[in-house]
Amino acid sequence: MIFSLPLLLMIGTIDWQHRRIPNYLVMILAGWAACYAAFSSEITVQTIAINIGIGLALTLPGYIKGIVGSGDVKLMLAIASLWPPLQLLSVFSVGIFSLLLLMSFTNLISKMSLTKAHYANTANLTGASFKRGIPLGSAIALGAVFVTAFNFTL
């Protein structure tokens, strides 16, 4: 699962900047996750089924309301076989918390008088850029990095 982090970070960066997650990157990640699950003793078919249910429960309401995109739903399904259910929930919750902190920080930076003049035309630092939806791919990438780093240090 640690080998999926660079790909997740790439997806998170693209999602942050463009609010789009390329399907080919999700397919590569899903392929890697399937290979990982095939050779992992802790990931079973039952675990994957539970994780798919968790992923759909977490993302479909946001998709139906237009808060998250279909790429976010596909990304949650692609990572279903990378972690056991509790760790998948940790990835999602830590990622959402980290994303909220990052969004708050960028909003604070955009309101500072010194940076306001410098970044006046930069959409990435304004609160308006988040009206296009939540970059859930970025949250998942952040959560995956933090949870994997935490598990790696134990």
Any overview of this molecule?
By secondary structure, the protein is mainly alpha-helical. It has one domain. It has seven helices and no strands. The longest helix has 27 residues, at 85-111. The relative contact order is 0.18. The model has no long low-confidence stretch (mean pLDDT 86).
Describe the structure concisely:
By secondary structure, this protein is mainly alpha-helical. The chain has 7 helices and no strands.
Please state the CA-atom Rg, rounded to the nearest Å: 16 Å
Q: What kind of sheet is the major sheet?
A: none
Proportion of residues in extended strands: under 5%
Distance between the termini: 15 Å
User: What ranges have pLDDT less than 50 throughout 5 or more consecutive residues?
Assistant: none
The sequence of SSEs as H and E is: HHHHHHH
Helix percent reads over 70%
Mean pLDDT comes to 86
Alpha plus pi helix count: 7
Tell me the number of structural domains.
1
Spell out the blueprint of helices and strands.
Elements: H1 5-18, H2 23-39, H3 45-65, H4 70-78, H5 85-111, H6 113-118, H7 136-153
Which features characterize this protein?
globular, mainly alpha, 154 residues
